[in-house]
């Protein structure tokens, strides 16, 4: 069923491209907005437009939004390299490899943690949306490390609440460019989708409150190894905050990393690893902590930065 929206263009979007304006108004990707425009489903002051046309404040938009695509279902197949750190009747803690998403999403065709667990014969909770059953927190597809998945329904509800109430200890290690000043500090800056609508996130006035604490573990000539403690858990939070203070994660080309340094260190993704995860067991009540060792690619690049820089 289609959804027809009619609304004036806010003055704050004066001069924006039509595809960018649609992305911001309706929370779409730029590519999906462009597809809607190409289908002739966008009128500006009664006329069809091209994606590169510009909107003007007070102009009248009529947009026919197609129905959202059906959520993808997890494909049950083992994920090579995904290690089980701990498992009982309520939870399973994994060390997630790179190139693996937490759960299926539109446009992602690679392996997922949920699918990998199901494919290896593990059970997961049935609570939550169909595509993300058992998932109580996420790591980016190319961020590695410790991640807990709920197996029982009670574990799902209690862990979701624990993450929401910030009663979980999430520690990451990140190799960032340069040397943060001060060596230990806090980045307290709101995050929301980047105004470009290209899938990135950014520090944006009026965004969701986001707090990242960092501490320098070791300083090299060209980079620093940080331990990071997340107080909040926004999408791409560490990557956005490190980029905002001009010390992006090595290899994170999406957020401004130097491609030359990344290539010299052999880093082909953001150097970011969820090294430790601590939480209260959802049924037993005891505090548990799990550590995930560096994967080979990050360990090699760390040796290289220590030797060469």
UniProtKB/TrEMBL annotation:
What EC number(s) are associated with this protein in UniProt?
5.4.99.-
The Gene Ontology terms for molecular function here are: RNA binding; rRNA pseudouridine synthase activity
For this protein, what reaction is catalysed? a uridine in RNA = a pseudouridine in RNA
| Recorded superkingdom | Bacteria
Q: Which residues form the RNA-binding S4 domain?
A: 16-74
Q: What does this protein do?
A: Responsible for synthesis of pseudouridine from uracil.
Q: What is this protein called?
A: Pseudouridine synthase
């Amino acid at each position: 069923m289609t959804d027809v929206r009619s609304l004036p263009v806010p003055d704050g979007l004066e001069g924006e491209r039509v595809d960018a304006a649609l992305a911001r108004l309706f929370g779409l990707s730029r590519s999906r907005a462009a597809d809607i425009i190409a289908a002739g489903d966008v009128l500006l002051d009664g006329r069809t437009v091209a994606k590169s046309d510009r909107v003007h404040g007070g102009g009248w938009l009529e947009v026919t939004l197609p129905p959202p695509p059906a959520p993808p279902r997890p494909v049950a197949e083992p994920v090579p390299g995904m290690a089980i750190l701990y498992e009982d009747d309520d939870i399973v803690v994994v060390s997630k490899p790179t190139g693996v998403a937490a759960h299926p999403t539109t446009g992602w065709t690679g392996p997922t943690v949920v699918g990998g667990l199901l494919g290896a014969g593990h059970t997961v909770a049935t609570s939550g949306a169909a595509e993300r059953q058992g998932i109580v927190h996420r790591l980016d597809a190319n961020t590695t490390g410790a991640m807990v998945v709920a197996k029982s329904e009670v574990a799902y509800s209690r862990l979701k609440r624990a993450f929401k109430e910030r009663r979980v200890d999430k520690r990451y290690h990140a190799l960032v460019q340069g040397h943060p000043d001060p060596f230990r500090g806090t980045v307290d800056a709101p995050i929301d989708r980047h105004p470009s609508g290209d899938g990135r996130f950014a520090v944006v006035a009026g965004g969701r409150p986001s707090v990242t604490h960092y501490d320098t573990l070791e300083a090299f000539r060209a980079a620093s190894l940080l331990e990071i403690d997340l107080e909040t858990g926004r999408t791409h939070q560490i990557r956005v905050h490190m980029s905002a203070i001009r010390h992006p994660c090595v290899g994170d080309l999406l957020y401004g990393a130097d491609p030359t340094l990344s290539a010299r260190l052999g880093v082909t993704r953001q150097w970011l690893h969820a090294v430790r995860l601590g939480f209260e067991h959802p049924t037993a009540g005891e505090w548990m902590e799990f550590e995930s060792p560096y994967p080979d690619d990050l360990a090699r690049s760390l040796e290289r930065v220590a030797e060469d820089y």
